[in-house]
Fold this protein.
Amino acid sequence: MRIDDRFFMESALREAWRYQGLTYPNPAVGCAVVKAGRLLAVEAHQKAGESHAELRAMLRAYEALEGRETAVDPADAWAVHDFLETIDPECFRGVTLYVTLEPCSHRGRTPSCARILSRFPLHRVVIACADPIAEHGGGADLLATAGIGVDFGCCREEAEALLEPFVIWQRRAFVLFKLAQTANGRIGGGYLSGPESLEHVHRLRAVADEMVIGGGTVRADRPRLDCRFTGNPAPDLTLYSRRDDFDRRIPLFSVPHRRVEIRDDLQPLLERPSFLLVEGGEGMLRALEDRIDWMLLYQTPKLSTHPLSYNVDQKLEYLHTGSLGADLLIWSRFG
Amino acid sequence: MRIDDRFFMESALREAWRYQGLTYPNPAVGCAVVKAGRLLAVEAHQKAGESHAELRAMLRAYEALEGRETAVDPADAWAVHDFLETIDPECFRGVTLYVTLEPCSHRGRTPSCARILSRFPLHRVVIACADPIAEHGGGADLLATAGIGVDFGCCREEAEALLEPFVIWQRRAFVLFKLAQTANGRIGGGYLSGPESLEHVHRLRAVADEMVIGGGTVRADRPRLDCRFTGNPAPDLTLYSRRDDFDRRIPLFSVPHRRVEIRDDLQPLLERPSFLLVEGGEGMLRALEDRIDWMLLYQTPKLSTHPLSYNVDQKLEYLHTGSLGADLLIWSRFG
């Protein structure tokens, strides 16, 4: 294994994938900080409104250099920003930053990363891909003007895959089809996933604009489709069905503060810039076959004789695989 | 993400998994070298008869410190050993080594790792798990006697999983069931895997003592079951079948220099300390259900409507997942 720019960028990418989707409407971003070959920190943006990856990583790197934790809350962007404004810039002399996305130049809900970074005598900022939003760009120029070396393109393809949902949900719905299955592709037989996977689904539901579910699954499974494992409000819900013959005692209808709509045409939903989380089985997969962007498989560690599977012909592209408790989490591009 | 002992040991584990099975009859082992927080090298044992992980890693670490490659062949254990005997021990002062398995103390086909390591003023050797073979042990004592700090147990559970095949094939057959499937668990429809996966299978076949395949698969697929993608001799073959009614024109019968046996009782094979690579479908899975140690899934990036799947109820435990070209490689404990 080579310990080079790719090695450090891959660490940053791996950390960022842990929060894929969960940062909505922000992009998933990771950042690694290296001084004289020493990896000081690898952090990611975790949630919109919280610190960007660069801020978290610089705070952790400072703590690693000092050999002690600070009292600063790493999630609090302004607190980290203000703290980084007070420290001696010399402590970061010669440091190289690896960021999966160009540091932002604009000050919004959170401070500008490029501006705070340009305070420090960094050696280099290695950027996997440029900011795709014109008005957010300029971060690299800001760094270069401050005399910091800027390198673009290390792991660009991998970083573009990480960024793809963000690029899509700027202009239309990003459609993520979620499925829990056994290792041999069976989707029936009650809860398949472990508690960590269930919590992860509920965290995705909590940030998504809307959940879409097939009518057949609703009739068969009588689900609740809320976020009870994370305590968040349940997302609005669209049932994809030609007929409105649902038993109103199905739990999903009585979740407080949630809109439930029944539609046989998803087109208007798909055009709106948003994050749609789609759950269901073969029927739903076939109905949205040409409109699904990514598939998220929660693959549980068992083989099953349950007859329920799904029959679809589709190419996938595996983008990232992680572990969630005993389960595998497999992110793939669909079609 | 914390940059601590676990971080470095996990790098070593990840590198070692790339050679799981391929090091037979040796164990898969990884090693990382760190100086003042700087990760200098992460290497693994790749093939029996070649350099152990520690030797490869020390050579690469030296090259990283010197900033230049040497002319030494990293695979050649004696060449690396002799080279490490000549360099100034001071270059490794303060270095910490992370090894997934206790460095060997005995001199066999390859030199003793513990002995060469004890030449250097290392700060610490962090060992995930002790050598399970009594006459190979003592490496840690040798290091400690040389004044090097030795820490046991970091990532022990993960390292024991990595080591499990080695422990099993010391006393009986290690049974690895290999299956290529789509992401929805379909196993029919011709070659499913990409070229990297096919090459990996052939590298496993080349080191295994014996391949076992179900008679039904032989009749249906008429395979060759050789190692043509790697140019190695084909492994000996056992066809598991009650009847010997095979068409002798099936290619596997005419592979030169290979023994083909037809058996309806695999017990004698299973008792012999060895590495058995089992291929087949549901019939073979059911026949060996209680005797399979690990399952290796080559999961190809597609969903398929092909009707051929496999119906078995079994618990798995995912041990490691990697990428092979476009495919996923999923190692799991079976049952």
